[in-house]
Fold this sequence. Notes:
The complex is a heterodimer of chains A (153) and B (240). Chain A is an alpha/beta fold and 153 residues long. Chain A contains 4 helices and 7 strands, in the order αββββααββαβ. In chain A, the strands form 2 sheets. In chain A, strands 1, 3, 5, 6 and 7 form a 5-stranded mixed beta sheet that branches. In chain A, strands 2-4 form a two-stranded antiparallel sheet. Chain B is built from 9 helices and 3 strands, in the order H-E-H-E-H-E-H-H-H-H-H-H. At the A-B interface, helix 1, helix 2, helix 3, helix 4 and strand 7 of A face helix 1, strand 1, helix 2, helix 3 and helix 6 of B.
Amino acid sequence: xxxxxxxxxxxxxxxxxxxxxxxxxxxxxxxxxxxxxxxxxxxxxxxxxxxxxxxxxxxxxxxxxxxxxxxxxxxxxxxxxxxxxxxxxxxxxxxxxxxxxxxxxxxxxxxxxxxxxxxxxxxxxxxxxxxxxxxxxxxxxxxxxxxxxxxxx
Amino acid sequence: xxxxxxxxxxxxxxxxxxxxxxxxxxxxxxxxxxxxxxxxxxxxxxxxxxxxxxxxxxxxxxxxxxxxxxxxxxxxxxxxxxxxxxxxxxxxxxxxxxxxxxxxxxxxxxxxxxxxxxxxxxxxxxxxxxxxxxxxxxxxxxxxxxxxxxxxxxxxxxxxxxxxxxxxxxxxxxxxxxxxxxxxxxxxxxxxxxxxxxxxxxxxxxxxxxxxxxxxxxxxxxxxxxxxxxxxxxxxxxxx
Lengths: 153, 240
Protein backbone atom coordinates (compact mmCIF):
# COMPACT_ATOMS: atom_id res chain seq x y z
CA UNK A 1 0.00 0.00 0.00
CA UNK A 2 1.16 3.50 -0.66
CA UNK A 3 2.62 5.43 2.22
CA UNK A 4 3.16 9.16 2.45
CA UNK A 5 6.85 8.53 1.88
CA UNK A 6 6.04 6.95 -1.49
CA UNK A 7 4.11 9.95 -2.76
CA UNK A 8 5.25 13.24 -4.31
CA UNK A 9 6.14 15.53 -1.42
CA UNK A 10 3.50 18.15 -2.22
CA UNK A 11 0.76 15.52 -2.33
CA UNK A 12 1.94 13.81 0.85
CA UNK A 13 1.98 17.12 2.72
CA UNK A 14 -1.58 17.81 1.56
CA UNK A 15 -2.84 14.37 2.60
CA UNK A 16 -1.28 14.74 6.05
CA UNK A 17 -3.50 17.76 6.69
CA UNK A 18 -6.76 15.83 6.23
CA UNK A 19 -8.74 15.07 9.38
CA UNK A 20 -9.68 11.44 9.94
CA UNK A 21 -12.79 10.33 11.82
CA UNK A 22 -12.38 8.20 14.93
CA UNK A 23 -14.65 5.36 16.04
CA UNK A 24 -15.04 3.87 19.48
CA UNK A 25 -17.10 0.85 18.43
CA UNK A 26 -15.91 -1.97 16.16
CA UNK A 27 -18.99 -3.31 14.32
CA UNK A 28 -18.37 -6.63 12.56
CA UNK A 29 -21.19 -8.41 10.73
CA UNK A 30 -20.67 -12.05 9.80
CA UNK A 31 -22.33 -13.81 6.87
CA UNK A 32 -22.57 -17.04 4.90
CA UNK A 33 -19.97 -18.59 2.58
CA UNK A 34 -18.98 -16.62 -0.50
CA UNK A 35 -21.05 -18.88 -2.75
CA UNK A 36 -24.10 -17.56 -0.93
CA UNK A 37 -23.16 -13.90 -1.06
CA UNK A 38 -24.81 -11.23 -3.16
CA UNK A 39 -22.09 -8.65 -3.69
CA UNK A 40 -22.27 -4.91 -4.37
CA UNK A 41 -19.46 -2.50 -5.19
CA UNK A 42 -19.17 0.91 -3.57
CA UNK A 43 -16.51 3.19 -5.02
CA UNK A 44 -15.20 6.52 -3.76
CA UNK A 45 -13.89 7.47 -7.21
CA UNK A 46 -16.55 10.02 -8.04
CA UNK A 47 -18.08 7.73 -10.65
CA UNK A 48 -21.20 8.73 -12.49
CA UNK A 49 -23.18 7.83 -15.57
CA UNK A 50 -22.33 9.82 -18.70
CA UNK A 51 -24.62 12.85 -18.67
CA UNK A 52 -25.15 12.89 -14.89
CA UNK A 53 -24.25 16.12 -13.08
CA UNK A 54 -20.57 16.11 -12.21
CA UNK A 55 -19.50 15.97 -8.57
CA UNK A 56 -18.97 19.17 -6.61
CA UNK A 57 -16.50 19.80 -3.79
CA UNK A 58 -17.92 18.69 -0.45
CA UNK A 59 -20.79 16.70 -1.96
CA UNK A 60 -21.65 13.90 0.46
CA UNK A 61 -24.29 11.92 -1.41
CA UNK A 62 -23.94 8.97 -3.74
CA UNK A 63 -24.60 8.11 -7.38
CA UNK A 64 -26.25 4.93 -8.54
CA UNK A 65 -24.35 2.75 -11.01
CA UNK A 66 -26.73 0.15 -12.47
CA UNK A 67 -25.19 -3.30 -12.83
CA UNK A 68 -26.06 -3.40 -16.52
CA UNK A 69 -24.48 -0.02 -17.33
CA UNK A 70 -22.20 -0.25 -20.36
CA UNK A 71 -18.61 0.71 -19.63
CA UNK A 72 -18.88 3.37 -22.34
CA UNK A 73 -21.33 5.18 -20.05
CA UNK A 74 -19.23 5.07 -16.88
CA UNK A 75 -17.49 8.36 -16.19
CA UNK A 76 -15.31 9.74 -13.41
CA UNK A 77 -15.65 13.32 -12.15
CA UNK A 78 -13.78 13.16 -8.84
CA UNK A 79 -12.73 16.68 -7.97
CA UNK A 80 -9.17 15.67 -7.06
CA UNK A 81 -6.51 15.67 -9.74
CA UNK A 82 -3.92 14.05 -7.49
CA UNK A 83 -4.12 10.44 -8.56
CA UNK A 84 -3.63 8.48 -11.75
CA UNK A 85 -6.55 8.34 -14.19
CA UNK A 86 -4.81 6.64 -17.09
CA UNK A 87 -5.54 3.22 -15.56
CA UNK A 88 -9.28 3.91 -15.47
CA UNK A 89 -9.11 5.35 -18.97
CA UNK A 90 -7.67 2.08 -20.19
CA UNK A 91 -9.81 -0.31 -18.17
CA UNK A 92 -12.73 0.52 -15.85
CA UNK A 93 -11.98 -2.60 -13.80
CA UNK A 94 -8.91 -0.86 -12.37
CA UNK A 95 -11.34 1.20 -10.29
CA UNK A 96 -14.70 -0.52 -10.65
CA UNK A 97 -14.17 -4.29 -11.01
CA UNK A 98 -17.70 -5.17 -12.10
CA UNK A 99 -16.53 -7.43 -14.96
CA UNK A 100 -14.37 -9.37 -12.53
CA UNK A 101 -17.27 -9.67 -10.09
CA UNK A 102 -19.60 -10.94 -12.81
CA UNK A 103 -16.98 -13.53 -13.78
CA UNK A 104 -16.81 -14.78 -10.19
CA UNK A 105 -20.60 -15.06 -10.13
CA UNK A 106 -20.71 -16.93 -13.45
CA UNK A 107 -18.22 -19.46 -12.01
CA UNK A 108 -20.26 -19.83 -8.85
CA UNK A 109 -17.49 -18.47 -6.63
CA UNK A 110 -19.89 -15.86 -5.30
CA UNK A 111 -23.65 -16.20 -5.21
CA UNK A 112 -24.68 -13.24 -7.35
CA UNK A 113 -23.96 -9.63 -8.20
CA UNK A 114 -26.19 -6.81 -6.97
CA UNK A 115 -28.47 -5.05 -9.43
CA UNK A 116 -27.18 -1.67 -8.32
CA UNK A 117 -23.79 -0.36 -7.25
CA UNK A 118 -22.86 3.05 -5.88
CA UNK A 119 -20.21 5.73 -5.87
CA UNK A 120 -19.24 8.44 -3.45
CA UNK A 121 -16.66 11.14 -4.08
CA UNK A 122 -13.87 10.47 -1.67
CA UNK A 123 -12.56 14.00 -1.23
CA UNK A 124 -15.55 14.76 0.99
CA UNK A 125 -15.28 14.55 4.77
CA UNK A 126 -16.35 10.94 5.51
CA UNK A 127 -18.33 12.02 8.57
CA UNK A 128 -20.62 14.00 6.24
CA UNK A 129 -21.28 10.80 4.30
CA UNK A 130 -22.87 8.97 7.24
CA UNK A 131 -26.53 9.85 6.46
CA UNK A 132 -26.12 8.74 2.84
CA UNK A 133 -24.31 5.58 3.98
CA UNK A 134 -27.16 4.69 6.32
CA UNK A 135 -29.67 5.21 3.53
CA UNK A 136 -27.53 3.02 1.28
CA UNK A 137 -27.60 0.33 3.92
CA UNK A 138 -31.37 0.18 3.55
CA UNK A 139 -31.22 0.13 -0.25
CA UNK A 140 -28.61 -2.61 -0.27
CA UNK A 141 -30.61 -4.78 2.12
CA UNK A 142 -33.67 -4.34 -0.13
CA UNK A 143 -31.50 -5.65 -3.00
CA UNK A 144 -30.70 -8.69 -0.75
CA UNK A 145 -27.02 -7.70 -0.70
CA UNK A 146 -25.00 -9.43 2.02
CA UNK A 147 -21.48 -8.35 1.03
CA UNK A 148 -20.08 -4.97 0.04
CA UNK A 149 -16.67 -4.40 -1.51
CA UNK A 150 -15.48 -0.86 -0.82
CA UNK A 151 -13.06 0.37 -3.47
CA UNK A 152 -11.05 3.59 -3.01
CA UNK A 153 -9.22 5.51 -5.67
CA UNK B 1 -13.83 4.22 2.38
CA UNK B 2 -12.87 2.80 5.78
CA UNK B 3 -15.38 5.09 7.49
CA UNK B 4 -18.08 3.95 5.04
CA UNK B 5 -17.30 0.40 6.10
CA UNK B 6 -17.99 1.33 9.72
CA UNK B 7 -21.31 2.99 8.83
CA UNK B 8 -22.51 0.09 6.67
CA UNK B 9 -21.60 -2.55 9.25
CA UNK B 10 -23.70 -0.64 11.77
CA UNK B 11 -26.54 -1.05 9.26
CA UNK B 12 -26.00 -4.80 9.29
CA UNK B 13 -24.00 -5.15 6.07
CA UNK B 14 -20.71 -7.07 5.95
CA UNK B 15 -18.02 -5.03 4.22
CA UNK B 16 -14.50 -5.52 2.97
CA UNK B 17 -12.35 -2.58 1.93
CA UNK B 18 -9.42 -2.37 -0.43
CA UNK B 19 -7.01 0.17 1.05
CA UNK B 20 -4.44 2.21 -0.88
CA UNK B 21 -3.10 4.56 1.77
CA UNK B 22 -1.89 3.20 5.10
CA UNK B 23 -1.83 6.42 7.08
CA UNK B 24 -5.48 7.11 6.23
CA UNK B 25 -6.98 3.71 6.83
CA UNK B 26 -5.07 2.05 9.68
CA UNK B 27 -6.21 4.53 12.37
CA UNK B 28 -9.86 3.84 11.48
CA UNK B 29 -9.46 0.07 11.89
CA UNK B 30 -12.18 -0.98 9.42
CA UNK B 31 -13.86 -4.38 9.94
CA UNK B 32 -12.01 -5.99 7.03
CA UNK B 33 -9.22 -4.42 4.99
CA UNK B 34 -6.92 -5.58 2.24
CA UNK B 35 -3.87 -3.29 2.05
CA UNK B 36 -2.64 -3.12 -1.53
CA UNK B 37 0.76 -1.73 -2.66
CA UNK B 38 -0.50 0.05 -5.76
CA UNK B 39 -0.39 3.65 -6.85
CA UNK B 40 -3.27 6.01 -6.12
CA UNK B 41 -5.94 5.66 -8.78
CA UNK B 42 -5.35 1.93 -9.31
CA UNK B 43 -6.93 0.02 -6.42
CA UNK B 44 -7.14 -3.21 -8.46
CA UNK B 45 -3.64 -2.80 -9.92
CA UNK B 46 -2.78 -2.23 -13.57
CA UNK B 47 -5.23 -2.08 -16.48
CA UNK B 48 -5.80 -5.01 -18.83
CA UNK B 49 -4.60 -7.53 -16.25
CA UNK B 50 -7.84 -9.41 -15.54
CA UNK B 51 -6.20 -12.37 -13.78
CA UNK B 52 -4.33 -10.04 -11.42
CA UNK B 53 -7.46 -7.96 -10.79
CA UNK B 54 -9.36 -11.15 -9.94
CA UNK B 55 -6.66 -12.12 -7.44
CA UNK B 56 -6.99 -8.75 -5.72
CA UNK B 57 -10.77 -8.97 -5.66
CA UNK B 58 -10.68 -12.54 -4.36
CA UNK B 59 -8.27 -11.53 -1.62
CA UNK B 60 -10.69 -8.79 -0.50
CA UNK B 61 -13.71 -11.09 -0.70
CA UNK B 62 -11.87 -13.80 1.18
CA UNK B 63 -11.82 -11.63 4.29
CA UNK B 64 -15.62 -11.85 4.45
CA UNK B 65 -15.57 -15.47 5.59
CA UNK B 66 -13.38 -14.79 8.63
CA UNK B 67 -15.60 -15.39 11.68
CA UNK B 68 -14.22 -12.58 13.84
CA UNK B 69 -12.50 -9.30 13.28
CA UNK B 70 -11.25 -6.77 12.57
CA UNK B 71 -9.32 -8.58 9.85
CA UNK B 72 -6.50 -6.78 8.08
CA UNK B 73 -4.07 -8.30 5.65
CA UNK B 74 -1.49 -7.20 3.09
CA UNK B 75 -1.86 -8.18 -0.54
CA UNK B 76 1.43 -10.00 -1.13
CA UNK B 77 2.40 -8.82 -4.61
CA UNK B 78 3.40 -5.56 -6.22
CA UNK B 79 1.53 -4.54 -9.36
CA UNK B 80 3.03 -6.22 -12.43
CA UNK B 81 4.77 -3.96 -14.92
CA UNK B 82 4.44 -4.54 -18.60
CA UNK B 83 6.67 -4.14 -21.64
CA UNK B 84 7.97 -0.70 -22.34
CA UNK B 85 7.05 0.75 -18.96
CA UNK B 86 10.10 -0.98 -17.51
CA UNK B 87 12.30 0.70 -20.09
CA UNK B 88 12.68 4.22 -21.39
CA UNK B 89 9.32 5.23 -22.82
CA UNK B 90 9.38 7.08 -26.13
CA UNK B 91 6.36 9.22 -26.87
CA UNK B 92 4.92 8.18 -30.24
CA UNK B 93 3.58 11.68 -30.94
CA UNK B 94 5.81 14.27 -32.60
CA UNK B 95 4.69 17.89 -32.29
CA UNK B 96 5.86 20.63 -34.61
CA UNK B 97 8.84 22.57 -33.21
CA UNK B 98 7.71 25.63 -31.33
CA UNK B 99 9.62 28.01 -33.61
CA UNK B 100 7.69 26.75 -36.64
CA UNK B 101 4.28 26.77 -35.04
CA UNK B 102 1.60 29.40 -34.56
CA UNK B 103 2.08 32.63 -32.69
CA UNK B 104 -0.51 32.46 -29.93
CA UNK B 105 -0.61 29.87 -27.18
CA UNK B 106 -4.17 28.93 -28.09
CA UNK B 107 -3.19 28.34 -31.70
CA UNK B 108 -0.25 26.19 -30.65
CA UNK B 109 -2.50 24.07 -28.43
CA UNK B 110 -5.01 23.69 -31.25
CA UNK B 111 -2.16 22.54 -33.49
CA UNK B 112 -1.23 19.94 -30.87
CA UNK B 113 -4.83 18.76 -30.77
CA UNK B 114 -4.79 18.38 -34.53
CA UNK B 115 -1.67 16.22 -34.24
CA UNK B 116 -3.22 14.17 -31.44
CA UNK B 117 -6.62 13.66 -33.11
CA UNK B 118 -5.72 10.45 -34.99
CA UNK B 119 -4.08 9.04 -31.84
CA UNK B 120 -7.16 9.85 -29.81
CA UNK B 121 -9.35 8.08 -32.41
CA UNK B 122 -7.00 5.10 -32.35
CA UNK B 123 -7.13 4.92 -28.56
CA UNK B 124 -10.89 5.25 -28.51
CA UNK B 125 -11.18 2.44 -31.04
CA UNK B 126 -8.81 0.19 -29.11
CA UNK B 127 -10.58 0.75 -25.79
CA UNK B 128 -14.11 0.89 -27.19
CA UNK B 129 -14.78 3.91 -25.01
CA UNK B 130 -13.53 7.32 -23.94
CA UNK B 131 -13.60 9.17 -20.64
CA UNK B 132 -13.71 12.51 -22.45
CA UNK B 133 -17.16 14.06 -22.19
CA UNK B 134 -17.61 15.54 -18.73
CA UNK B 135 -18.11 18.87 -20.45
CA UNK B 136 -20.24 19.36 -23.55
CA UNK B 137 -17.31 20.84 -25.48
CA UNK B 138 -14.83 19.36 -27.89
CA UNK B 139 -11.08 19.86 -27.28
CA UNK B 140 -10.65 22.88 -29.54
CA UNK B 141 -13.72 24.58 -28.08
CA UNK B 142 -12.29 23.93 -24.62
CA UNK B 143 -9.08 25.68 -25.66
CA UNK B 144 -11.12 28.70 -26.76
CA UNK B 145 -12.96 28.70 -23.43
CA UNK B 146 -9.72 28.50 -21.43
CA UNK B 147 -8.00 31.09 -23.60
CA UNK B 148 -10.91 33.46 -23.13
CA UNK B 149 -10.83 32.97 -19.37
CA UNK B 150 -7.09 33.63 -19.19
CA UNK B 151 -7.36 36.81 -21.27
CA UNK B 152 -10.63 38.29 -20.04
CA UNK B 153 -11.66 36.42 -16.90
CA UNK B 154 -14.89 35.42 -18.63
CA UNK B 155 -16.33 32.31 -16.98
CA UNK B 156 -18.71 29.79 -18.58
CA UNK B 157 -22.39 30.69 -18.25
CA UNK B 158 -24.27 28.56 -15.74
CA UNK B 159 -24.93 27.89 -12.09
CA UNK B 160 -21.55 26.28 -11.43
CA UNK B 161 -19.05 28.16 -13.61
CA UNK B 162 -16.04 27.10 -11.55
CA UNK B 163 -16.94 23.44 -12.07
CA UNK B 164 -17.73 23.96 -15.74
CA UNK B 165 -14.23 25.40 -16.07
CA UNK B 166 -12.69 22.52 -14.12
CA UNK B 167 -14.43 19.74 -16.00
CA UNK B 168 -13.65 21.35 -19.36
CA UNK B 169 -10.01 21.39 -18.29
CA UNK B 170 -10.26 17.78 -17.07
CA UNK B 171 -11.67 16.81 -20.46
CA UNK B 172 -8.73 18.42 -22.24
CA UNK B 173 -6.30 16.54 -20.00
CA UNK B 174 -8.14 13.26 -20.62
CA UNK B 175 -8.00 13.90 -24.38
CA UNK B 176 -4.22 14.31 -24.20
CA UNK B 177 -3.80 11.27 -21.93
CA UNK B 178 -5.98 8.99 -24.01
CA UNK B 179 -4.20 10.12 -27.18
CA UNK B 180 -0.68 9.51 -25.97
CA UNK B 181 -1.60 6.11 -24.48
CA UNK B 182 -3.30 4.90 -27.67
CA UNK B 183 -0.27 2.65 -27.93
CA UNK B 184 0.12 0.81 -24.61
CA UNK B 185 3.42 0.99 -22.79
CA UNK B 186 3.58 4.32 -21.00
CA UNK B 187 3.48 4.33 -17.20
CA UNK B 188 1.33 6.89 -15.43
CA UNK B 189 4.52 8.77 -14.53
CA UNK B 190 5.59 8.82 -18.18
CA UNK B 191 2.25 10.38 -19.12
CA UNK B 192 2.38 12.89 -16.27
CA UNK B 193 5.90 13.97 -17.20
CA UNK B 194 5.06 14.22 -20.91
CA UNK B 195 1.89 16.22 -20.41
CA UNK B 196 3.37 18.72 -17.96
CA UNK B 197 6.80 19.19 -19.53
CA UNK B 198 6.44 18.65 -23.25
CA UNK B 199 3.09 20.08 -24.32
CA UNK B 200 1.85 23.57 -25.05
CA UNK B 201 -1.37 22.56 -23.32
CA UNK B 202 0.48 22.53 -19.99
CA UNK B 203 1.32 26.21 -20.42
CA UNK B 204 -2.33 27.00 -21.04
CA UNK B 205 -3.48 24.89 -18.06
CA UNK B 206 -0.97 26.59 -15.78
CA UNK B 207 -2.16 29.98 -17.06
CA UNK B 208 -5.75 29.05 -16.19
CA UNK B 209 -4.63 28.06 -12.71
CA UNK B 210 -2.73 31.32 -12.22
CA UNK B 211 -5.67 33.39 -13.48
CA UNK B 212 -8.08 31.45 -11.25
CA UNK B 213 -5.95 31.87 -8.14
CA UNK B 214 -6.34 35.63 -8.57
CA UNK B 215 -10.05 35.47 -9.35
CA UNK B 216 -12.43 37.52 -7.21
CA UNK B 217 -14.91 34.64 -7.13
CA UNK B 218 -13.92 32.54 -4.07
CA UNK B 219 -15.29 29.32 -5.57
CA UNK B 220 -13.17 29.81 -8.69
CA UNK B 221 -10.19 30.60 -6.50
CA UNK B 222 -10.72 27.42 -4.48
CA UNK B 223 -10.95 25.24 -7.58
CA UNK B 224 -7.95 26.90 -9.21
CA UNK B 225 -5.79 26.58 -6.13
CA UNK B 226 -6.15 22.85 -5.62
CA UNK B 227 -8.34 21.17 -8.20
CA UNK B 228 -6.90 21.95 -11.62
CA UNK B 229 -3.22 21.04 -11.75
CA UNK B 230 -1.84 17.92 -9.98
CA UNK B 231 0.47 18.63 -7.07
CA UNK B 232 2.93 16.21 -8.64
CA UNK B 233 3.11 18.50 -11.68
CA UNK B 234 4.22 21.44 -9.57
CA UNK B 235 7.80 20.19 -9.50
CA UNK B 236 7.89 19.55 -13.23
CA UNK B 237 9.20 22.33 -15.44
CA UNK B 238 7.94 22.89 -18.92
CA UNK B 239 10.55 22.58 -21.66
CA UNK B 240 11.34 25.82 -23.45
